[in-house]
Amino acid sequence: ILIIGPQGTPYENGLFEFDLLCQNHFPTSPPRLEFRTTGGGRVRFNPNLYDDGTVCLSLLGTWSGEPWDSEKSTIRQVLVSIQAMI
């Protein structure tokens, strides 16, 4: 997945790469997401985007807050939330 940095931010027009994996139990369980734009593990753009590729987001079950709901949650929600972090 390639997410473009939002306008009006220091990351405007930046390209941020993520790997998205929907396992066999999707959509009952959230997808897995790994942040790939880390400069070889040297760069961290946000406190919830780790240099080891970990993405902390409640929808993914990796952070506190509203969890994934298989009846309502979508991959689009996940991607929009990630774009808001950048």
Automatic annotation (TrEMBL):
Keywords: Transferase, Ubl conjugation pathway. One of its GO terms (molecular function) is transferase activity. SUPFAM superfamilies: UBC-like. Gene3D superfamilies: Ubiquitin Conjugating Enzyme. The keyword Metal-binding does not apply. Pfam families: UQ_con. Residues 1-86 form the UBC core domain. PANTHER family: (E3-INDEPENDENT) E2 UBIQUITIN-CONJUGATING ENZYME (PTHR46116). This is UBC core domain-containing protein.
